[in-house]
Amino acid sequence: MTKETPAPEKTFTLKNDQTGEEWQLPVVEGTYGPHCIDIRKLYGQTGHFTLDPSFTATGSCKSKITYIDGDEGVLMHRGYDIKELAADSTYLETCYLLLYGELPNKKELKEFTAHITNHTMVHEQIKSIYQGFRRDAHPMAIMCGVVGAMSAFYHDSLDIWDPEQRRISAHRLIAKIPTLAAMAMKYSKGQPYVYPRNDLNYTENFLHMCFSVPAEEYKLRPPVVKAMERILILHADHEQNASTSTVRLAGSSLANPMACIASGITSLWGPSHGGANQAVLEMLDQIGHKDNIPEFLERAKDKSDPFKLMGFGHRVYKNFDPRAAVMKESCDEVLAELGIDDPQLELAMELEKIALNDPYFIDRKLFPNVDFYSGIILKAMGFPTEMFTVLFAVSRTVGWISQWKEMMEEPSIKIGRPRQLYTGAPSRPYVPIEKRK
Ligand code: SDX
Known about the structure:
By secondary structure, the protein is mainly alpha-helical. Helix content is 49%, strand content 5%. A 3-stranded antiparallel beta sheet has the order 1-2-3. Strands 4-5-6 form a 3-stranded antiparallel beta sheet. A hairpin with a 2-residue loop joins strand 5 and strand 6. It is globular. It starts with 10 loop residues before the first strand and ends in a 29-residue tail after the last helix.
């Protein structure tokens, strides 16, 4: 279990070795995890900034929502371990937990479910936005557009200072994101949109909207529904990752919450982040056969080669990503249920085995992450590869909006505005073009 935080030092002393000046910086502690040196007054006291370009050692906020112990491979939401949530909870129950901090009782869950269910339809005019895209547009490009466009449709909840309007926006986003995602998939396939059905639960409804066609209703198989439910639970939130930090930064300017979620979708799309699930399948295609694994592992180690082992490594996890273990289990179940013997799964397992015994990966503590197996399950379910990151966005919307809500509930909100170390040209006079070389 995650190690308790030892009693904190009260302050850190910072000393300027040139002038001998010393400053006492306060140390703040959380429930778990490293203590933080509070540097909010550092510039005022020392005239110095800190420099941490990719925030490897910088806390951007305090949060009660999610905690990751990267060394132990632990992920918890509001104190509940992800493995228990994936095994025993539902996605909507996890949404409630992330948003409101406690597991709902039966009445609360019933009311929350009803509210989400009754907001799953989108404004009919949103259909015309899809028409603006080429049929071969990446569905993440479509999602960036249509989710951003949502900010133009709900003028009854624009007051972000009103908790009730924040709640409505959060519920609308959770309710409508599966509908928009399914529409993106249908649009890419040239099939008609499928309306949500209120008699289905959230996950069943999503699969229905993605795979039913007017000529035939999608046959819901419990193991597939359960695997989809788990995938949604596993991707729901993950501390201050790139896309969540993007949403928080966008939200700190008091921007429209729907537009902030669109910014999160944009950030998630990158192959270093949520786009990795698509990139893993493409990588497995590229490797092709287990005999080629050694060559690709060497390429992954070669700094001059842009090839990376997609689905491996993580900024925080220096142990197995607990989500990957659950994902692998789901993979076996879904492939067995569907009677699929996917050579890519065999290849992935062989790749994982070899990589985990390779000093390069061992020394750098590079383990499979959440994206390594998810693509294989999603492919088995029938999702096109380009839809994989969209599914990640469907799930992560609740994490993004929960983190946005937490920020908006802070006693005071300051716009996020990092500083920099300027290394550009010194001051110089303008040169008229006639005098330029
Ligand atoms: C997600 O932040 C989150 O929480 C994200 C996420 C979430 O739920 O929101 O968990 C979801 O984005 C999972 C990660 C998905 N991305 C991938 O699978 C892409 C492949 N992974 C890498 O791009 C990389 O591991 C990152 C981006 C995930 C993490 O990069 P870091 O933290 O910046 O680590 P690094 O690049 O500094 O790596 C340290 C070393 C380097 O080598 P050295 O300079 O020490 O010699 O490890 C090497 C890296 O070159 N390395 C890899 C590698 N990942 C890191 N080498 C080969 N293949 C890899 N996959």
